[in-house]
């Protein structure tokens, strides 16, 4: 065999035919000095999404879609699903009288309620009311369903680590064999629910403790989920935050107020209900036009678990 390899062309052909690559002449580098700028900063405006989702509510019933939602995929070329590398976000609508049947999956999930009263989620038998501003958790492999017994359309945002599960491949999904859990018990939510009024009180108590990317900030959970960290952050009107960057991927949801985020030279204006994504290692800063509250959703626990979490501020 060696005698038949008399040139570099012969050498390359020999190992390429075995699905191998020579480390000295890679077509693409395997290592680089710092995280590459792959996924793009992006925004989704709630004022544009809401009427489309409302139309879907008239055209797409629960008989056609167990979850009526619109997922936000990053506009980087070739991408069709993740919002950032490890997470996906979506807007969801449940109309009065509707029930979203129970299922479970290995992906972790959570939801931020935007509008509407009278809707409940059932997580492993605990029936929890969902109100605007609340953040509710669905840890992996827990049964969960939703129903709207009120008179108002309920809109919320979902965040899941599905892209991470896709990457690592332990995806399991199971519809509930009975459609819904047979029994549920009313619950205040316990560790599954972070109530808006409680979060506001905690933010008020944190006033004066400026943070790198907020003027007040409280963590929801420690962390909220094994793969997802949640921070509710307050921005004071007219006071810019510092410039930060982190190896964690971030999705911001606007809970209250309006303002602007600068991401790696790109300026994004935002209002209530909007979504803004900050891919890993992109420098960013915020400036609120009025006092504002943002929910910061990140994969920091994943990065931290493997010693990959780095943050720069200044």
Main-sheet strand order equals: 1-20-17-22-15-14
Q: What is the strand content?
A: 35-45%
Helix content: 10-25%
Number of separate structural domains: 2
In the CATH scheme, the class of the largest domain would be Mainly Beta
What is the ordering of alpha helices and beta strands?
HEHEEEEEEEEEHEEEHEEEEEEEEEHE
Number of helical segments with 4 or more residues? 5
Radius of gyration: 22 Å
Topology:
Layout: H1 8-16, E1 42-44, H2 46-59, E2 69-72, E3 88-94, E4 99-105, E5 109-115, E6 119-123, E7 126-130, E8 135-138, E9 144-148, E10 154-160, H3 162-168, E11 173-175, E12 185-187, E13 193-194, H4 196-205, E14 216-220, E15 229-235, E16 244-246, E17 250-256, E18 259-263, E19 266-270, E20 275-278, E21 284-288, E22 292-298, H5 300-305, E23 311-313
Parallel strand pairs: 7-12
Antiparallel strand pairs: 1-20, 2-3, 3-10, 4-9, 4-11, 5-8, 5-10, 6-7, 6-9, 8-13, 14-15, 15-22, 16-23, 17-20, 17-22, 18-19, 18-21
Structural features:
23 strands; 15% helix; single chain; 2 domains; 314 residues; 36% strand; 6-stranded antiparallel sheet; globular; 5 helices; Jelly Rolls; alpha+beta
Structural description of this entry:
A hairpin with an 8-residue loop joins strand 14 and strand 15 (229-235). Helix content is 15%, strand content 36%. It has helices spanning 8-16, 46-59, 162-168, 196-205, 300-305, and strands spanning 42-44, 69-72, 88-94, 99-105, 109-115, 119-123, 126-130, 135-138, 144-148, 154-160, 173-175, 185-187, 193-194, 216-220, 229-235, 244-246, 250-256, 259-263, 266-270, 275-278, 284-288, 292-298, 311-313. The protein starts with 7 loop residues before the first helix and ends with a strand. The protein has 2 domains: 42-194, Jelly Rolls (Sandwich); 198-313, Jelly Rolls. A 6-stranded antiparallel β-sheet has the order 1-20-17-22-15-14. With 314 residues, the protein is of the alpha+beta class. The model has no long low-confidence stretch (mean pLDDT 95).
């Amino acid at each position: 065999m060696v005698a038949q390899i008399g040139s570099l062309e012969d050498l390359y052909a020999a190992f390429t035919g075995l699905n191998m690559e020579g480390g000295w002449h890679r077509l693409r580098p395997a290592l680089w000095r710092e995280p590459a700028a792959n996924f793009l900063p992006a925004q989704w405006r709630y004022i544009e999404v809401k009427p489309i989702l409302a139309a879907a509510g008239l055209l797409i019933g629960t008989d056609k879609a167990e979850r009526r939602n619109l997922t936000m995929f990053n506009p980087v070329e070739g991408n069709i699903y993740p919002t950032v590398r490890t997470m996906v976000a979506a807007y969801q609508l449940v109309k009065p009288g509707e029930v979203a049947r129970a299922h479970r999956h290995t992906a972790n999930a959570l939801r931020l309620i935007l509008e509407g009263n009278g809707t409940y989620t059932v997580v492993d038998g605990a029936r929890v009311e969902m109100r605007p501003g609340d953040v509710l958790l669905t840890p992996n492999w827990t049964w969960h369903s939703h129903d709207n017994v009120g008179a108002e359309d309920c809109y919320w945002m979902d965040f899941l680590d599905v892209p991470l599960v896709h990457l690592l491949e332990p995806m399991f999904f199971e519809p509930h064999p009975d459609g819904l859990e047979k029994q549920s018990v009313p619950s205040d939510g316990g560790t599954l629910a972070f109530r808006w009024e409680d979060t506001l009180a905690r933010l008020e108590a944190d006033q004066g403790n400026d943070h790198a990317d907020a003027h007040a900030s409280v963590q929801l959970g420690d962390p909220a989920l094994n793969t997802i960290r949640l921070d509710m952050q307050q921005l004071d009107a007219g006071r810019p935050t510092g410039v930060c960057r982190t190896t964690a991927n971030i999705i911001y949801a606007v809970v209250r107020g309006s303002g602007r985020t600068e991401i790696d030279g790109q300026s994004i204006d935002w209002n209530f209900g909007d979504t803004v994504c900050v891919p890993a290692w992109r420098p960013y800063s915020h400036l609120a036009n009025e006092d504002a509250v943002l929910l910061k959703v990140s994969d920091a626990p994943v990065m931290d678990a493997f010693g990959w979490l780095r943050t720069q501020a200044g």
